[in-house]
Queue: 2 jobs
Job 1
Amino acid sequence: MFTFNNEQLTGKSQSHLIELYPNHLVHIAATKAVKNLQQASQQAGFDLRLASSFRSFERQKTIWNNKASGLSVCLDKSEKPLDIKTLSGFELADSICFYSAIPGASRHHWGCDFDVYDFKAYANPNDLKLTQAEYQKGGENYQMYLWLVDNAEKFDFIFPFTQAKNGVAAEPWHISYQPLSKLAQQSFSADYFASLLKQNDILLADVILKAFDYFYPKYIGQYHV
């Protein structure tokens, strides 16, 4: 039986991965399930592709730090740009967490969570934005999304972010291979994650550590159990 170690769980290691497609690393034990789901989608008239698969700790850190420093746009819950200069460190970290995981805490580190889309729905795949509108009625991926809602569990995939709850934004494009993600959830160490925040150049890490009892259960704990 496969087991996750701390470095694999936090995107620091790629030892559990295989390159299933160019630029797409996938957990070795999830490759068959991905291919089976894709084959079924084709039989249903869709062409399910991976927009995002494994994401390293360093890649997640770049995404986070760019938002924390103002290099990338930070959005409010209505998807409108925020003026981060008006926010406290706590408010900024809280806002970023709604859309982007803290480095080390992304489910994409595990290699069994994927952002998916219908390749056939786009004349130019570069037009894919992974927005709510694309997966709602009238959107490019809406019909495939409806098919996934009815069929994903047959292949052991679930939607981990189905609604905003009290934490992160809903992600209708994000699916998770549950046999592995459940194991990852059970193996995830809050203490090891906190040590990463202390040892790496993550902006706002001091804010998160100071309010760890707020950030961890809200943005990590409820999605990792």
Job 2
Amino acid sequence: MKDSIPRRMGFAGIGIGVLLLLSAACLPLYLSSCGGNGGTSSSGPSYLRGFGLSPEGFPLPADAAHWASFYSEVGGMGRGAAMWNGAWRDDLTGGSDAGTVPAAGPSLMAASAAYGFTPVFVFGWRSGTTLYLNVPDNSANHWANPQARSRFNNMLVNFVAAYRPPYLFLGNENDFYFEQDSADYLNWITFYNSAYDNVKAASPSTLVGPVFQFEHMAGSGGLNGWTTPLWGALTLHDNARMDIVGITVYPWLNFASAASVPAGYLDNLFLRIGSKPVAITETGWPAENLGGLNPSWNTSPQEQVAYIPKFFSAIAGRDVRIVNWTFLHFMVDDGTHSTGWKMFGSISLYDNAAVRRPAYPAWISH
């Protein structure tokens, strides 16, 4: 593609449509139909292996059976994980509930206990170039808003104090905001630092970190016009306040074929963070050319299979705690035929007929 893609739907990744699927009203009903898996297996890889929330038929509302099937499958994988990538408040527009823990927080914690998987949380605050920092007592929509900072901080502390989540990420693909407003990004860093300290005081065992988009930050997304490195988004962080570094990884934005991805693909990141643990919060390869997009990179089930050994070569010998294939199930078109759906909808291990793709056993076997 000649032009840079629009940011993926919602909070860059699993999207606004997906992040709002999980509500306090619906999940307890889903849990009532589960059999549970009694915890994760002690066998298998040392890293957690997971997916963004992607039951069959998402982002359209899924019924209880599809949620139960998704959670059961992830829980039964052994060291399985499910990631919620959502907003820090449920009322995106007005922020009337800012400071209250989003409904998805306790709901996913309950599901993880019932089905035996590890929950991973990403609390976002922006969608593309739109920020969600205005609150009823201060409409300023930036990180210098003291009321928004206070409410966000209180929400985080209350959540971790009550639930002790194992992984908590603050902001998703934050390098895009560094590019958008480098001055306010400094305000974001000061908020992150104070929030980190307060979260760790309330729940010392919770691993806390930011999330970045690797190709964009490294300037290695040439097929998408991303050629200017933005490492400042990472280096402005206090290394001591990053327990773990989250990254999303999509090499097809730089290499047309999986065969072209070098074994040292992520070395530029590891050189900058040293032995710091890493979470691959999203990765995968598109299996289909959806909606006539006709991208510059190859899309096929075979490319997905070819990418898997390349990915594991890139993280070999590194302290990687989480590896998430972006979706378990195919993202259905919600009727908008959006660019986000065209590009990312087929990064799944099931096709649109709910049949496992060839990449499924290859991914699960690692």
